[in-house]
Specification:
With about 80 residues, this protein is α+β, with helices and mostly antiparallel strands. It contains five helices and three strands; from the N terminus they run ααβααββα.
Amino acid sequence: MDEVFKALKDPTRRKILQLLKRGSMTAGEIAEAFDISKPSISHHLDLLKRADLITVERRGQFLHHHLNTTVVENLLAWVIDLKE
């Protein structure tokens, strides 16, 4: 869970997750929404993948990134459990 919190603390990564809420996207499509370098976007995507917040699927020559809602649901369940 430490990796999840590390990934979520950055606003760029949170925005990437918001973009992926709408559906899968390639790294190039994600990069178009930001004013930062493509290598920086790749770094953010790598951290999100290591935290299992996103999954990656190869379609032809492109990698499509998807939001992993299972990890998000587990995180929410943990937070709700804290309240009880």
